[in-house]
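Deviations from the work plan: none for this task. Representative record:
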Amino acid sequence: MIDVLGWISLCTGVGFTVLGCLGLVRFPDLYNRMQAATKCVTLGTCGIMLGVFLKSGFGALGVKALLCALFVLITVPVAAHALARGSLIFGVKLWKDTVKDEFTDDRGGESIIEGPK
Amino acid sequence: MGRRIGYFVFGFAVWMLLVYTLHYQEVIVGIGVALLAAVLFGRNLPVEPSRLLNPVRWFWLLAYIPVFAYMCLKCNIDVALRVLSPGLQLKPGIVRIRTSLKSDIARVFLANSITLTPGTMTVELKEDVLYIHWIEVGSTDPVEAGRTIIGPFEYFLSRIFD
């Protein structure tokens, strides 16, 4: 039973990772790509780690897998935040259909939404 | 001093979980490394040690995990469907919301939780103002947007950290 749960968790993880990578290719600008790339892949990695833990049980391997999942959960959002903030301040353009950008408005800068081509 | 002791205990526990053996060599190295880290970085521990011992906070932390896992899974499926839909259904934007959380550590956890629920990503955290990149802007009204994005997170985090 636990073995089956482990396989389900592993497959879900791999599936979400694939979808995240697909999103990285399909989405139009840096910020949207980061949404897909950082988060689907985080859930995917955690799913894979959880699967490894369920399949190997409480042992040196399983506990390390759980700790890895925890570290990924804590560090990935911080890295994504830093990258997105740096890109915004540097002025990497937002997609042309972006609705609003209150960050640049509040900084008093010029709009960095890409104009229509 | 309390912070350093808290840091030492936490560091040593993580070390022991990582090596996962009670061999005396590993224990000695673990004590050494945890001591060094505690002396160097202990005063930067962002939580008051007395709060770490409060069981009510631990209870809320345990209650938070399934809520977070559910939100995370639900929103991930949402983004996965967006990735697969033929015409990209995107309406992105950066909105500003406010949080009522007081302590720094609670705000950081709120920002991280928002980032990990797909569709929303924190791009800047300044005092009590959060700038969120939202993949489909549902509302431009700050209060309404705040309620949609923050959801149940604030309720739990204020009980865990504040």
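The CA atoms of residues 43 and 113 of chain A lie 30 Å apart.
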